[in-house]
């Protein structure tokens, strides 16, 4: 018998991820690794990890990586790509990192059309610090710093990063995907591949926003978090290609 | 090597380019705008990169990224902007990323004033960011020194894999002086310096886990974090030989001025003026303010020295605390201070020296 | 003929593989791994069609598929 689905070699052979059961960080990291291998560009990969749960895979993946200060991944990636254009530079950031503390760096890098790729994980909550409210937290969704749930009058509304960046002229590619179903996992992988190809082709800023779960801080079983994505997250964060030029 | 007439900020930038700096990111703030402006013009001539970041925070992190690829990289700012950069500097120190930055310091605290000051001494020498890392900190008192220090700073940064700070002030940054510029590194030398860092630079490596590049500004395991800090501390300890200080006429001095940077330059002229009047004054000028030349204070003749006069452009005084560690209570320490952007005057220093002289009797 | 291989030590019992397998090949077993998770096991391997959906959905890269 032939092995037709192999564990990506971009994940260290002997490692178990540090993520919680059902956490889709692991899914996305696996997809990134598969794309790097399929495109034969692992030896060009330079990954900039955000702060938070994103950082949990620094000791899980087997390719070059660095960790940026909280929110600064797009600035660090700017320096890396400009200093060494032949590397494939991509950031891996959560919603607190990319859309809150790093909003300035994120929007500015996109506006410059930096030839980098952003993998943006949106699960509507701060994971590692224990379930605080994120810019992408849904109205009514409970968080440790919004114990009654997000209230629009007090906290404002969830931020839609694809749509915000779509106001800019420079970005090349913006797509929102999810990993809640097999079909969406396939679409996410395609989107990551396209974003990497854009960089190799010098097209400029590409961002894939991936709607994922945080079963632990959502207070749900992993399987129930899939339903939550479908019923609550996706109506607020509709999937699809927002920009492709 | 021709002498040229240059503004301090521009001379610092040119020295960096000649040292092989090929990435600069910065953000406007007075009085250091001529540094990014110079790089904006100059980098394209040498195949380097200039980026105006969206903030100081972004700029220093761009430098963190560029330097992580092995490229000699620099940023600059002035006091409040340096505070914002402290995040990125701390990351560079923790991840052992070589980079150079200049603080063309101004009045503070807060937005302070845009005129020259020396109010960032503690920040520069004791705590430039969280975590207790250390850096070589050079304090030029002339534009020529600023040039020479900047040029050499990149070598120190690469050798130690650590940030290096040029602690200048608004006077050094904005005045024009004749300077001799060092030779420019050739394109081949610049490429070779980058190539030499390829093992650890985050440029992409073959799938070979132990040999991947892993830039680590932190560690999950506390034992790894402690080991990293111990390794860094060993580098800091090796700087004992890097201490630089100028001693000027202290052998017979009855009053020794201690000052650094622009205050020291003004004080040096005062030493000569007062000696003509028969008042035996000397000067100790730390050139590296970290590590600090404490031992140089052992060379004062305490049998005849009435007092050490700390001259600095900071109220309250900061540099005086290092001076007092050096003096070890072997004589009194007086201060002569200005602050908020007021450049210390010769007259004020002369008055302070004479006050000590009269009080103690000749 | 097809077969799935599960690294029991990597499994965290999220059950995505169980839910999405179209043929009911997998189930959560009654044994636990060293981290305390009841890991996924094949209970109906003969039905496997090597569609790889289980492996794609697994967040922990615990599943490999043979055909």
UniProtKB/TrEMBL annotation, chain A:
Biological process terms in GO annotation: cellular respiration
Domain Thiamine pyrophosphate enzyme TPP-binding residue range list: 51-210
Gene Ontology MF annotations: oxidoreductase activity, acting on the aldehyde or oxo group of donors, iron-sulfur protein as acceptor; thiamine pyrophosphate binding
Keywords from the UniProt entry: Oxidoreductase
Domain of life: Bacteria
InterPro entries in the record: 2-oxoacid:Fd_oxidoreductase, THDP-binding, TPP_enzyme_TPP-bd
Pfam families: TPP_enzyme_C (PF02775)
Signal sequence extent: none
SUPFAM superfamilies recorded: Thiamin diphosphate-binding fold (THDP-binding)
Residue ranges of the TM segments: none
PANTHER family, sorted: 2-OXOGLUTARATE OXIDOREDUCTASE SUBUNIT KORB-RELATED (PTHR48084), SUBUNIT OF PYRUVATE:FLAVODOXIN OXIDOREDUCTASE (PTHR48084:SF3)
Name this polypeptide is given: 2-oxoglutarate ferredoxin oxidoreductase subunit beta
Native organism taxonomy: Bacteria, Bacillati, Bacillota, Clostridia, Lachnospirales
UniProtKB/TrEMBL annotation, chain B:
Keywords (A to Z) from UniProt: Oxidoreductase
Pfam families, A to Z: PFOR_II, POR_N
Domain Pyruvate:ferredoxin oxidoreductase core: start-end pairs: 253-347
Domain Pyruvate flavodoxin/ferredoxin oxidoreductase pyrimidine binding: 14-198
CDD domains given in the database record: TPP_PYR_PFOR_IOR-alpha_like
Keyword Oxidoreductase: yes
Domain of life from the UniProt record: Bacteria
A GO molecular-function annotation: oxidoreductase activity
SUPFAM superfamilies to which the protein is assigned, alphabetical: Thiamin diphosphate-binding fold (THDP-binding), TK C-terminal domain-like
PANTHER family xrefs: SUBUNIT OF PYRUVATE:FLAVODOXIN OXIDOREDUCTASE, SUBUNIT OF PYRUVATE:FLAVODOXIN OXIDOREDUCTASE-RELATED
Protein name in the entry: 2-oxoglutarate ferredoxin oxidoreductase subunit alpha
Native source organism of the sequence: Parasporobacterium paucivorans DSM 15970
Taxonomic classification: Bacteria, Bacillati, Bacillota, Clostridia, Lachnospirales
Automatic annotation (TrEMBL), chain C:
Signal sequence coordinates: none
Pfam families the record matches: Fer4_7
SUPFAM superfamilies xrefs: 4Fe-4S ferredoxins (SSF54862)
InterPro entries in the cross-refs: 4Fe4S_Fe-S-bd (IPR017896)
Domain spans labelled 4Fe-4S ferredoxin-type: 2-31, 39-67
Top-level taxon of origin: Bacteria
Gene3D superfamilies listed in its UniProt record: 3.30.70.20
Species of the source: Parasporobacterium paucivorans DSM 15970
Descriptive protein name: 2-oxoglutarate ferredoxin oxidoreductase subunit delta
């Amino acid at each position: 018998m032939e092995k037709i689905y192999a564990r990506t070699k971009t994940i260290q052979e002997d490692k178990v991820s540090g993520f919680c059961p059902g956490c889709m960080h692991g899914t996305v990291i696996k997809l990134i690794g598969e794309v790097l291998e399929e495109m034969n560009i692992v030896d060009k990969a330079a990954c900039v990890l955000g702060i938070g749960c994103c950082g949990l895979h620094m000791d899980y993946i087997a390719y070059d990586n660095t960790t940026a200060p909280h929110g600064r991944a797009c600035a660090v990636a700017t320096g890396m790509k400009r200093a060494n254009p032949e590397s494939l530079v991509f950031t891996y950031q959560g919603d607190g990192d990319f859309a809150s503390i790093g909003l300035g760096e994120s929007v500015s890098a996109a506006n410059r059309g930096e030839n980098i790729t952003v993998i943006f994980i949106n699960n509507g909550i701060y994971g590692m610090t224990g379930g605080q409210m994120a810019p992408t937290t849904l109205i009514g969704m409970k968080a440790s710093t919004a114990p009654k749930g997000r209230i629009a009058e007090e906290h404002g509304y969830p931020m839609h990063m694809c749509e915000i960046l779509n106001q800019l002229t420079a970005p090349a590619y913006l797509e929102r995907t999810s990993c809640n179903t097999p079909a969406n996992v396939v679409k996410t992988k395609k989107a990551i591949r396209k974003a990497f190809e854009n960089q190799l082709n010098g097209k400029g800023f590409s961002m894939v926003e991936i709607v994922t779960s945080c079963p632990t801080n959502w207070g749900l079983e992993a399987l129930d978090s899939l339903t939550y994505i479908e019923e609550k997250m996706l109506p607020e964060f509709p999937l699809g290609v927002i920009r492709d030029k | 090597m021709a002498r040229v007439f240059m503004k301090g900020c521009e001379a610092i930038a040119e020295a960096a380019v000649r040292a092989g700096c090929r990435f600069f990111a910065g953000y406007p703030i007075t009085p250091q705008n001529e540094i990014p402006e110079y790089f904006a013009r100059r980098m394209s001539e040498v195949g380097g990169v200039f980026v105006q970041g969206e903030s100081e925070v972004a700029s220093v992190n761009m430098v963190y990224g560029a330097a992580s690829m092995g490229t000699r990289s620099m940023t600059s700012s002035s006091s409040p902007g340096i505070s914002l950069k402290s995040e990125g500097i701390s990351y560079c120190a923790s991840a052992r990323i070589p980079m150079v930055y200049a603080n063309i310091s101004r009045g503070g605290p807060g937005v302070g004033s845009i005129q020259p000051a020396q109010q960032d001494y503690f920040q520069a020498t004791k705590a430039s960011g969280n975590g207790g890392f250390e850096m070589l900190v050079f304090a030029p008192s002339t534009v020529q020194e600023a040039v020479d220090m900047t040029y050499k700073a990149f070598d120190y940064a690469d050798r130690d894999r650590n940030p290096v700070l040029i602690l200048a002030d608004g006077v050094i940054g904005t005045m024009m002086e004749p300077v001799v510029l060092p030779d420019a590194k050739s394109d081949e030398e610049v490429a070779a310096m980058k190539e030499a860092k390829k093992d650890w630079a985050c440029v992409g490596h073959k799938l070979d886990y132990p040999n991947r590049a892993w830039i680590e500004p932190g560690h999950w395991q506390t034992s790894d974090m402690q080991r990293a800090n111990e390794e860094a501390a060993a580098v800091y300890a090796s700087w004992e030989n890097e201490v630089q200080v100028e001693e000027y006429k202290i052998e017979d001095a009855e009053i020794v001025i201690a000052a650094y940077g622009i205050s020291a330059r003004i004080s040096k002229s005062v030493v000569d003026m007062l000696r003509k009047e028969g008042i035996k004054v000397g000067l100790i000028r730390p050139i590296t303010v970290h590590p600090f030349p404490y031992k140089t204070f052992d060379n004062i003749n305490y049998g005849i020295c009435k007092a050490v006069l700390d001259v600095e452009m900071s109220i309250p005084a900061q540099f005086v605390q290092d001076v007092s560690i050096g003096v070890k209570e072997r004589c009194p320490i007086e201060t002569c201070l200005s602050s908020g952007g007021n450049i210390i005057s010769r007259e004020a220093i002369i008055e302070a020296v004479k006050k000590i002289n009269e009080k103690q009797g000749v | 003929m097809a077969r799935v291989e599960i690294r029991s030590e990597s499994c965290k019992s999220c059950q995505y593989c169980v839910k999405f397998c179209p043929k009911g090949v997998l189930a959560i077993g009654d044994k636990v791994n060293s981290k305390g998770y009841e890991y996924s096991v094949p209970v109906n391997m003969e039905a496997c069609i090597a569609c790889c959906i289980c492996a794609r959905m697994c967040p922990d890269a615990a599943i490999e598929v043979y055909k």
